[in-house]
Amino acid sequence: MVVALADSFFFDVDLDAARSRILTFLLVSFAPFILVAPLIGPVIDRIRGGRRFVVQIVAVLRILIQIAMIRYSGEVALFALVFGALVLQKTYTISKSALVPSVVRSDRELVEANSKLGLIAGITGAVAVIPAGALQILFGTPVTLAFGAVLFLGALAAAIKLPQEVLISASSRVRGRGFEVSPGMRAGGDALLMLRGSAGFLMFHLAFWLRGQERGTLWFALVVVASTAGTMLGNISGPRLRRMQSEEKMVVLALTVPAVAGLVAVVLPGRIPVVMLALVVAMAAGVARLAFESIVQRDTTVISRGQVFAYYETRFQFAWVLAAALAVLLNLPGWLGLVAVSGAAASGLIGTRAEALSHSPRQRTPRRRSRRSPKNLKGRSNGSSQGRSTRR
């Protein structure tokens, strides 16, 4: 879908038209989150069949939307379909994150499990882009969208094989915001908020800054590649960092590195340091995401996990959209934008370091997860999990 639509949004129009279209895209990209936090999060926690069933339904609907896009690819209805695709994408992301604790043996494996999911998604996306780009060039948008439908069919087949998880009975479901924010969640959430905003600002700042320079399109392509590689490196390095330190300390490290790298990119001449900064920011955001997801999975109960992820995903996307819009509207000089990225990471570090380190568990005993059958787990969730939810 991205390959089929990106060409007409940015590269084939003049600078002013690109700004207006990107601002429209940013607005559309955030609009689904108006539904995600108040509606989709609670539904994911309460729906009969659990998050496994949600993932399957999302795959079916994505297939139908891809097919509908073929019919309406040149009409206004396409925006409604893109909106629906974005809602389903975020629904899947939240369901996937909430499912992870049901497939690990202890809390210490959460970072590694999240890392593997991130790597699989990144590799699959990178591999799929190559044939999608070829199909777009050779046959056009309809064939590219049909290829996307085939990929989601494969996703549906994989979702059907997912193991069953803890099912939540009606008596244990909570209404409203049935969770409280732990100190680790607050520190991790604030850190990832700053890093997501920095990533959004840097991407669009560089898009317009490099566009007006010699071989700007090539350099921006390198920035995109570096950002993708940085996310992959963050997923690869996350488990190794977790073996050496807690999730809270990982968050502090993730803020420290881009704060320094931003200043280095300002001082050093040329565009290579700028490309490397894009890699570092993406890598730091990837590490922070792994740490934050693991903290949430560790500190929340099964009956509220979807709501927590929906609440924070909304905040993160708002930060990304707002920072990206500022980059588009302000049109800062290149060096000043890099200083802004460094300053954002530094301010996040100042605000979260004390809280993250003060609540970092020094010797946490890994919480073992039972390998009981789903039937037994259901009864267990109605007991201990319900009591923990009541306190929340």
Description:
The chain is an all-alpha fold and 392 residues long. It has a single domain (18-168, 180-358), classed as MFS general substrate transporter like domains (Growth Hormone, Chain: A), CATH 1.20.1250.20. Helix content is 79%, strand content 0%. The chain contains 14 helices and no strands. It has helices spanning 2-11, 15-30, 33-46, 50-71, 77-99, 110-138, 141-160, 183-211, 216-244, 247-267, 272-299, 305-330, 334-358, 374-391. α6 runs antiparallel to α9, α6 crosses α11 and α8 (183-211) packs antiparallel against α11 (272-299). It is globular and about 55 Å long. Residues 168-176, 363-368 and 370-392 have low confidence and may be disordered.
List the helices and strands and how they pair.
Layout: H1 2-11, H2 15-30, H3 33-46, H4 50-71, H5 77-99, H6 110-138, H7 141-160, H8 183-211, H9 216-244, H10 247-267, H11 272-299, H12 305-330, H13 334-358, H14 374-391
Quickly list its features.
392 residues; Growth Hormone, Chain: A; disordered C terminus
